[in-house]
C-alpha cells in the first residue's frame, strides 16, 4: 500500500509539474501598409487686391499679398513624385486688363518640393510646386508653402473703374507625369 501511495504521489507531482510547463500560443498576422495619398489645406483667404493709378506718369500700381500658406501631406512610392497644380475655377478670371500671378515658397524644401517660380493663373492647370515626395508640411504658421499673389495691369485701356471680381483658386495635389 505504501508503494501504491508513493506511485500516486509521483504521478500527481509529475502531472502538477507538467501543468506549469504547458504553454499555449496563438499567432496573428497583421498587414502594415503605407497607402498612397495626400491632403491639402490653406491658412485662410488673402486680403483684397486693389489696383489703381500710380504717379502722374500714368503707371498703375499692382497689388500683392503674401499672408496665406498652403499646407499639404503626401505619401508616395519610391521614385514617385507629386506636383501641386493651380487654376481658376471655371468662369473666374482677373478684372479686364489684369493678370493674377501666384508664386509659392515651400518652407522645408527636400521632399516638400520646390517652386518653379511665379505663374499666371488661368483656367488651365499650371504647376505651382513640383518634386513632392512623402512629406507633411505641418499646420502652424511658417510650416506650409507661403503663397504670394500679385495682381498687375497688362492692358490699361481695358480697365473699368469699379470692376470687382471674386475668384476661386483650385489647388490640386496629383502624381507627376
Notes on the structure:
The chain has one helix spanning 2-21; strands at residues 37-42, 52-53, 60-61, 63-75, 82-88, 98-105, 114-115, 119-120, 126-132, 135-136, 145-153, 169-175. With 177 residues, it is mainly beta. Strands 1, 4, 6, 8, 10 and 11 form a six-stranded antiparallel beta sheet that branches. β2 and β3 (60-61) form a beta hairpin. The longest helix has 20 residues, at 2-21. The protein is elongated, with a radius of gyration of 33 Å.
Lay out the secondary structure.
Layout: H1 2-21, E1 37-42, E2 52-53, E3 60-61, E4 63-75, E5 82-88, E6 98-105, E7 114-115, E8 119-120, E9 126-132, E10 135-136, E11 145-153, E12 169-175
Antiparallel strand pairs: 1-4, 2-3, 4-10, 4-11, 5-9, 5-12, 6-8, 6-11, 7-9
Short description:
This protein is mostly beta strands and 177 residues long. The chain has one helix at 2-21; strands spanning 37-42, 52-53, 60-61, 63-75, 82-88, 98-105, 114-115, 119-120, 126-132, 135-136, 145-153, 169-175. The chain has one domain (37-175): Sandwich (Immunoglobulin-like), CATH 2.60.40.
Features:
mainly beta; Immunoglobulin-like; six-stranded antiparallel β-sheet; about 180 residues; 1 helix; 12 strands
Amino acid at each position: 500500500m505504501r508503494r501504491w501511495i508513493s506511485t500516486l504521489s509521483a504521478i500527481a507531482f509529475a502531472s502538477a509539474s507538467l501543468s506549469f510547463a504547458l504553454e499555449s500560443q496563438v499567432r496573428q498576422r497583421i498587414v502594415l501598409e503605407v497607402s498612397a495619398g495626400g491632403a491639402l489645406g490653406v491658412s485662410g483667404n488673402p486680403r483684397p487686391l486693389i489696383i489703381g493709378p500710380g504717379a502722374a506718369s500714368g503707371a498703375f500700381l499692382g497689388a500683392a499679398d503674401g499672408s496665406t500658406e498652403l499646407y499639404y501631406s503626401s505619401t508616395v512610392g519610391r521614385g514617385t513624385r507629386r506636383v501641386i497644380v493651380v487654376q481658376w475655377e471655371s468662369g473666374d478670371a482677373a478684372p479686364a486688363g489684369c493678370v493674377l500671378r501666384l508664386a509659392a515658397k515651400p518652407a522645408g524644401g527636400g521632399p516638400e518640393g520646390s517652386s518653379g517660380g511665379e505663374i499666371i493663373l488661368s483656367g488651365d492647370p499650371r504647376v505651382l510646386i513640383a518634386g513632392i515626395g512623402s512629406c507633411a508640411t505641418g499646420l502652424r504658421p511658417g510650416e506650409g508653402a507661403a503663397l504670394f499673389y500679385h495682381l498687375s495691369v497688362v492692358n490699361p485701356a481695358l480697365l473699368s473703374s469699379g470692376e470687382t471680381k471674386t475668384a476661386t483658386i483650385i489647388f490640386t495635389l496629383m502624381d507627376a507625369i
